[in-house]
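FAQ

Q: What does a record look like?
A: Structure on top, sequence underneath. For example:
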């Protein structure tokens, strides 16, 4: 018996009857030999972790655009926090931690530079055809490894595309990531709002603090405990009614006081204009795309789709650099003058 088979046997003996066992995976689009050490979801986790798109997350906006400070969240630190929340819940509920971690690490790969500001622009320019969760799946299926993709299992891809609020993954592991994403960004973004001196603890309505906790740490702890207790022995992942109602009110409050805050969002208009200008520039100068992107055009991909693929993969800094290259004039210099 290989090490992988021993691990798979251990899953059968120890995980919840509601967990997704590695041996029960629906598999990959392209069949490949099994690893002798790692079950399928662990391999998927490793593939995402070693991908270029994952490494780029460290230089992509979470809430604050290119913040001047080392301790504001980036898209990568958010992803790691989602992973940790989800693994804590999964371990307590005896779900498949490898599947949870793979989904969590991959869920935001498709985010654009400048966060949701960039996503809004590309979605508008393509008549509603760009969403970051769908782009995350496109990355792992078609764009990574120069067009080969990562050939991930069906369950991981299902969890990635269904991590949005209005969607629902097929596995409890996917649903765990979905709810972990929400509690991660609401609590962490509030913490960043305090760091930016835009919010204070006392700003949160007292009724919500009484229900959820009087600090970011306490609220996160309360939500994770509530999810575990509410979901224990159930074929779903959810909060208690009181906690969910308070959480949704807190989320609504965050949108009103941080996500649309004129100070925090003051640079978004510039970022959106920059992404739009880059889009039109590449549409008019398609030959400037990398060779691997041009091959996608030769294989029948739509021009606007390939341009979105390229721009959405940029980090904040790279997008700024390309914009300056295309649109900011360089001072003329002659030797000796």
């Amino acid at each position: 018996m290989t090490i992988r088979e021993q691990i798979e046997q251990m899953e059968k003996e120890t995980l919840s009857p509601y967990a997704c066992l590695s041996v029960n995976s629906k598999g990959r689009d392209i069949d490949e030999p099994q690893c002798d050490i790692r079950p399928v979801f662990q391999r998927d986790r490793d593939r995402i972790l070693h991908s270029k798109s994952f490494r780029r997350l460290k230089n992509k906006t979470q809430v604050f655009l290119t913040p001047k400070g080392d301790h504001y969240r980036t898209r990568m630190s958010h992803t790691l926090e989602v992973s940790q929340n989800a693994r804590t819940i999964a371990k307590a509920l005896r779900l498949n931690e490898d599947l949870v971690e793979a989904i969590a690490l991959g869920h935001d790969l498709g985010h654009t530079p400048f966060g949701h500001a960039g996503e809004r622009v590309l979605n508008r320019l393509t008549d509603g055809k760009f969403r970051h969760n769908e782009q995350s799946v496109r990355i792992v299926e078609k764009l990574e490894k120069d067009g080969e993709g990562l050939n991930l299992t069906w369950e991981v891809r299902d969890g990635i595309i269904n991590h949005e609020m209005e969607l629902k993954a097929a596995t409890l592991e996917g649903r765990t990531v979905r709810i972990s994403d929400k509690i991660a960004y609401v609590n962490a973004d509030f913490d960043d709002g305090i760091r930016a001196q835009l919010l204070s603890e006392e700003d949160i309505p007292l009724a919500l603090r009484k229900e959820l906790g009087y600090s970011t740490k306490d609220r996160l702890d309360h939500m994770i405990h509530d999810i575990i207790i509410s979901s224990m022995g159930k074929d779903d992942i959810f909060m208690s009614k009181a906690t969910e109602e308070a959480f949704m009110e807190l989320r609504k409050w965050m949108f009103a006081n941080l996500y649309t805050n004129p100070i925090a969002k003051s640079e978004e208009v510039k970022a959106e204009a920059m992404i739009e200008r880059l889009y039109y520039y590449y549409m008019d100068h398609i030959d400037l795309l990398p060779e691997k992107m041009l091959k996608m055009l030769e294989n029948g991909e739509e021009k606007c789709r390939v341009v979105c693929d390229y721009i959405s993969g940029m980090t904040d800094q790279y997008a700024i650099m390309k914009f300056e290259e295309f649109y900011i004039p360089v001072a003329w210099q002659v030797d000796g003058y």
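Q: Is there anything notable about this one?
A: Residues 3-20+36-259 form a domain with the Hypothetical protein af1432 fold (CATH 1.10.3210.10).
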